Amino acid sequence: MFLPQMDAIDQDIIRLLHENGRMSYSKIGELLSLSRVAIQKRVDALIEDGIIENFTVRLNAARLGKFVSAFFEVEVEPRFVEQAGDLLSREPEVISIYQMTGPSLLHMHALLQDERALEQFLFKKIYVLEGIVGVNTHMVIRRFKQGTGLEL
Asked: Start and end of every HTH asnC-type domain (predicted)?
């Protein structure tokens, strides 16, 4: 698949949108000395080419009552990886889940209300799944950086 080459203007547009996804095309145009229409056309092309997948909002988990951020390494029997990944991905606490290399391993990030909710999540939503071999849980103490995707 041919990936279009981005010029410096496209990269500047992406950088500005990455810093503030709500920045108007007029404001971006003003900063880059281009018209709003020119910026809109470029953003539309970046979307059409699949470079920009979507626009999103980052929520403050603690303000929403989610005080525990935890990562899980879930080891699963190979024949149950797909099923476990699918079931866990449906849980509202789970914000990301990936199948990793090595033993049949799922790497998962979840946001939970408190330690009791973490315990319930482990025992009522993970350990009960067929094929679970083991779980390593790591609670976040401090965040140094949280990405919203690939940065240029």
From this structure: 6-67
Q: How far is CA 109 from CA 51, 58, 64, 103, in A?
A: 25, 15, 17, 18
Question: The domain 62-139 is classified under which CATH number: 1.25.40.10, 3.30.420.40, 2.60.40.1180, 3.30.70.920?
Answer: 3.30.70.920
Residues 14-50 have pLDDT tens digits of 999 988 999 999 999 999 999 999 999 999 999 999 8
Please name the fold of domain 8-48.
Arc Repressor Mutant, subunit A (1.10.10)
78, 40 contact by CB (below 8 A): no
Q: Give the tens place of pLDDT for each residue, 100-127.
A: 987 789 999 999 999 999 999 999 999 9
Q: Residue 16 in contact with residue 31, Cβ under 8 Å?
A: yes
pTM of the predicted model, to two decimals? 0.79
Question: In whole angstroms, what is the distance from residue 80 CA to residue 148 CA?
Answer: 30
pLDDT per residue as tens digits for the range 136-145: 999 999 989 8
Tell me the one-letter amino acid at 12: D
